[in-house]
Amino acid sequence: MQKTERQKMMAGEWYTCLDDELEALRVTARSAVHEHNFLAPEDRGAIGSKLRNLISAGSAIIEAPFHCAYGINIRLGDQVFLNAGCTILDCATVTIEDQCQLGPNVQIYCAEHHQDPIKRSVNGLEIARPVHIGKRVWVGGGAIILAGVTIGEGAVVGAGSVVTRDVSPGQVVVGNPARPIKRKRYDQAN
Fold first, then answer.
1. What are 136-185's pLDDT values in tens digits?
2. 84 φ/ψ angles, rounded to the nearest 5 degrees
3. Burial of 115 by CB count in 10 Å (0-12 exposed, 13-18 middle, 19+ buried)?
4. Which of the residues are catalytic?
């Protein structure tokens, strides 16, 4: 039996994003994001009701505006805070563990588009890789986290950094591409 484009996407295989089932899921996410972004804060709460139905979230707070591709692939732990302007293109699973803080305009991209221009533009071919952010990570404003990256527990990503590779637990990375800086790890500080 042939896999659906959604099954291929979730399996980390090449899939076409120009698929009717995937478009329907994106339409549902757009509606949920719209509600979240335009409800008054006292009516919205920590996460708008439609968005909460899509996202698996503990006691997380998502400030508006927020954007996601599907929502169904996002896992947020307890005491997670996403500041205003965060974007999560969750074509694969995005896990953000407990007590993480993401600054304003942080972007997480799970999709990698095909390098062949015909396969990319005409066929909509892309591949999705999961992103995992460990406990107590701080991601500075405007940082971009690319597909397939794992950020270890207690790490810090400097504002405006572009994270193209895994970050070790407790490590501080800055720049484009993000590189470690020499500082005491959080568990070694006085």
1. 999 999 999 999 999 999 999 999 999 999 999 999 999 999 999 976 55
2. -60, 140
3. exposed
4. 113
pTM: 0.93
| First-to-final CA distance of the chain | 59
Q: Per residue, what are the HEC states of the chain?
A: CCCCHHHHHHCCCCEECCCHHHHHHHHHHHHHHHHHHHCCHHHHCCCCHHHHHHCEECCCEECCCEEECCCCCEEECCCCEECCCEEEECCCCEEECCCCEECCCCEEECEEECCCHHHHHCCCEEEECCEEECCCCEECCCCEECCCCEECCCCEECCCCEECCCECCCCEEECCCCEECCCCCCCCCC
Question: Tell me: the pLDDT tens digits for 29-68?
Answer: 999 999 999 999 999 999 999 999 999 999 999 999 999 9
| Cβ atoms 168, 157 nearer than 8 A | no
